[in-house]
Amino acid sequence: MKASLVLKMGQQLTMTPQLQQAIRLLQLSTLDLQQEIQEALDSNPMLEREEDGEDFDNPDPMAESLDQKIENTPSENSSPDSQYEEPVNTMESFEEGDWGERIPNELPVDTAWEDIYQTSASSLPSNDDEEWDFTSRTSSGESLQSHLLWQLNLAPMSDTDRLIATTLIDCINPQGYLDESLEEVLESFDPELGIELDEVEVVLRRIQQFEPAGIGARDLRECLLLQLRQLPADTAWLNEATRLVSDHLGILGSRDYSLLMRRMKLKEDELRQIVDLIQSLNPRPGSQIETSEPEYIVPDVIVRKDNNRWLVELNQDAMPRLRVNAQYASFVKRADSSADNTFMRNQLQEARWFIKSLLSRNETLMKVATQIVEHQRGFLEHGDEAMKPLVLHDIAEVVGMHESTISRVTTQKYMHTPRGIYELKYFFSSHVSTAEGGECSSTAIRAIIKKLVAAENPKKPLSDSKIAGLLEEQGIQVARRTVAKYRESLGIAPSSERKRLL
Question: Which one of 221, 238, 337, 365 has the lowest number of neighbouring Cβ atoms within 10 Å?
């Protein structure tokens, strides 16, 4: 092939660092944005936080007040007729006060600093204070294993039994059940220890007496029986509940109450009380131990109603105000090309772009939130059943932005409304056609299904086909499979599992 030069014209989109920064800030949540702002404040001296009540025109009020103090202090050559008074010797006044009489010049050798001076540690409540709970202020969540090990350390055991108990605790899953069989646990020990299967089973019985009740069970039946055994002996219907769990748990799971009444020779009212006692037990005892740290949500937008109008405003407490440090900015010289001046100029430019990106983020968030509120007024007035179908394209077309931008704005951004705090994505949902030719939001359909199930007869719960028929009577055309999908998303069990005794 012959080499040749070819000229071609084309367009290429190049993202500048400023644009990349604006996009990155746009998709950050409020907590992540606060961390990003703090990092920018720590790394860029040109940025500073504008505090409430601070004079915006005064770049450094502390410096000004310090200068005034220096100017007002008389010099050595000041005349006695000067309008300023003679400065007071603060050290002499301090020694002549009450504190001077209480603080000795020298401390005895056997005296500690805390015996004379009050420290921050001494201000903490003592361990004897009943209201002081150190773990509640320092712990970040407790695992089930650590909770069981803490109880194990309080139980008197031999070294061999403690080794067996530690191994068994490691085999308990987060739900509280023993994952491994006793034979498999026995095989994990060194044969030279001479541990037998009976010893493992005895230690397991000890662990099953720990809290929470029902821990260390190998199946559901054993878990429920362990909890029943820890109830007071005078508990009503305790013996009947123990017998039902031991012999007829499968029939109870299938909701065949007629067969249960025949097998146990009970009346319907008696069986109802026994079932209520069993349902008060926890089939997953390990879930009582909270292992995850709490997650806090800071709303970005606040919506409130004023004079029959819905007002949208940014959460100012979550949006720190930044500005350029005027004192440092005044040090930048235009004609100076030194390394220090170039560094300050670059920092000043980055600070201005960062503030501009934050303003752009807030403006975009306000535009999108305002349009969402305008579109979903029915939800704010009447609840989920009045939710209208909404997709990203609808908002993008109104505000004149791309759908990807709307997706970034609505991700991990929350709106505080009189009905609660919702993620902005909650207001977007697909639609289903109605008999009149209109559209109904999938969120509204879920709310209707939840309402129908809450009002159903517990003896004859509504099937998915029946729910679809009831929706069709309201003009909403939904297939049975769609009803099943919505029901599962709401965490509602099938009709066969919702059957209850009156």
Answer: 337
Q: Are the beta carbons of 388 and 429 closer than 8 angstroms?
A: no
Distance CA 389, CA 375 (A): 9
Q: Where are the strands (E) in 282-425, listed by range?
A: 301-306, 309-314, 322-324, 414-417, 420-423
Q: How many CB atoms lie within 10 A of CB 145?
A: 17
Residues 214, 224: contact at Cβ < 8 Å?
Answer: yes
Alpha helices in 46-154 (DSSP H): 61-72, 90-96, 98-102, 113-116, 134-138, 144-154
Integer Cα distance of 92 and 160 in angstroms: 71
CA distances from 376 to 345, 373, 424, 430, 440 (A): 47, 5, 11, 14, 13
Pick from 456, 322, 463, 444: which is nearest to 386 by CA?
444
Cβ pair 228, 245 in contact under 8 A: yes
Tens of pLDDT, residues 208-264: 999 989 999 999 999 999 999 999 989 998 999 999 999 999 888 888 888 888 988
Q: What is the pLDDT of residue 66?
A: 32
Please write down the long-range contacts of 187-196, taking CB distance under 8 Å and 24 or more positions apart.
Answer: 189/163, 189/164, 193/160, 193/163, 195/160, 195/164
- pLDDT for position 132: 43
Residue 17: count of CB within 10 angstroms of its CB? 9
Query: Quick one: pLDDT at residue 291?
Result: 62
- What pLDDT is attached to residue 32? 86
In DSSP terms, 301 is beta-bridged to: 314, 415
Residues in the chain: 502
Q: Provide the pLDDT for residue 137.
A: 42
* Kind and range of the H or E run holding 439: strand 439-441
